[in-house]
Design brief:
Blueprint (H helix, E strand, L loop, with lengths): L2 E6 L5 H10 L4 E7 L3 H7 L8 E2 L10 E4 L6 H10 L3 E4 L10 H9 L2 E2 L9 H7 L22 H6 L17 H7 L5 H9 L16
Parallel strand pairs: 1-2, 1-4, 2-3, 4-5, 5-6
């Protein structure tokens, strides 16, 4: 049985996925796309064999599977309708899920499934298996070019200017939930690891800003 797919975003993740679905993936059919820029979206979809409909974000929930590949600021516009409709929801912005764990509880109530993609991180199945026992801690180190951190709420709050950095600089240490709040565009891999392992640790980080 073919499942219908709706896609939010046509950027670095969304557009290759849309093209792959258009080329044909057994059991899946792309029926709709939502973006903030409809003109750009129409240009991106030129040449598609089976043109998906361009819809509002809330209308994506009409599909069986809703894939979110948008800036984290749009996360709830995609996630909430999909979860309320009991759909399969696949978030690329996994970091945006950590401060919203109430959506996981809501998915249990509506019958929705939240499927977290592994992204660049291998071995999550092994971590999930280990989490059936007791995991004391999991550590991940993330390195980003300074320009990739511009606008991060954590840096702005603590007055950290990364553009004058000329050598490796640690700007944050803490749990996954605090990282997701402070760097919503940069910690999707860490968020996926947290969800597979010890959880997001929903408490205030014991760490302050670090510059060493």
């Amino acid at each position: 049985m073919t499942k219908t797919v709706a896609l939010a975003g046509l950027g670095a993740i969304g557009l290759p996925l849309a093209r792959a679905l258009d080329q044909g993936i057994d059991g899946l059919k792309l029926i709709s796309v939502a973006t903030r820029d409809l003109v750009k979206a129409r240009a991106c979809l030129v040449g598609f064999r089976d043109q998906p409909a361009l819809v509002d974000f809330r209308e994506l929930a009409e599909a069986d599977i809703v894939v979110e590949a948008t800036p984290a600021s749009l996360f709830e516009r995609v996630a909430i309708p999909a979860i309320e409709a009991g759909r399969i929801f696949i978030p690329a912005s996994v970091g945006a899920l950590l401060p919203r764990m109430h959506l996981v509880k809501r998915a249990m109530q509506t019958g929705a499934r939240i499927v977290v993609p592994t992204g660049a991180l291998l071995g999550l199945d092994a971590v999930r298996a280990a989490a059936e026992g007791r995991i004391e801690s999991i550590t991940i180190e993330t390195r980003k070019p300074p320009a990739g951190l511009l606008g991060a709420p954590y840096l702005e709050k603590h007055g950290i200017d990364v553009m004058d950095v000329t050598m490796p600089l640690r700007v944050f240490a803490g749990n996954a939930r605090d990282a997701a709040l402070g760097f919503p565009a940069n910690v999707n891999v860490a968020a996926a690891l947290a969800l597979a392992g010890i959880g997001p640790v929903p408490r205030k980080s014991r760490y302050g800003p670090i510059r060493d």
